[in-house]
Request: fold
Amino acid sequence: MNNIYLVGFMGTGKSAVGKELAFRLKRRFVDLDELIELKAKMLVSEIFAKNGEPYFRKLEKQVLKETAKEKNFIVSCGGGVVIDYDNIKIMKKTGLIACLSAKPEVILKRVSNTSRRPLLNVSNPKARIELLLKLRSPYYARADKIIDTSKLSIKEVVTKIIKMVSSRLEDDK
Reply:
């Protein structure tokens, strides 16, 4: 079986779900943003501040390509990875894509205690969340499955992803 890529907006639970999913499926978990930070030797927020979003997206694509060469990984991707169609092609070719979603007010509540969200360092973060969700929704729609995590526990989301993977394996037989 190939990789499982978790995409979706920040605060939808990709990292928490990814870790639990890796545990349940006995796979390795990797957070793409953490790999980018290791490669760049600085935090994502610092990359955005010092080099801008285009530079970050270039690094993100490189790290995704490297990660996609591995097998049986659970990969938590940054919220904007889907904006680049090549990234979607890479993920589809090497695994399944589960998009985690949540309502804007849920996202705001989940991310309000951190300053490590460079795209939300604005005067009206809820409006920014709504705008970015609207802009990214066509990209998120390319996922193999979309799961709204607003009212689900981590374990419930993991169970839904495992069912998706199981049904895909059945379809491939």
Observations:
- Helices lie at 14-25, 32-40, 44-51, 53-68, 85-94, 104-111, 125-140, 154-172.
- The chain has eight helices and five strands.
- The beta strands are 3-8, 28-31, 73-76, 95-101, 145-148.
- The longest helix spans residues 154-172.
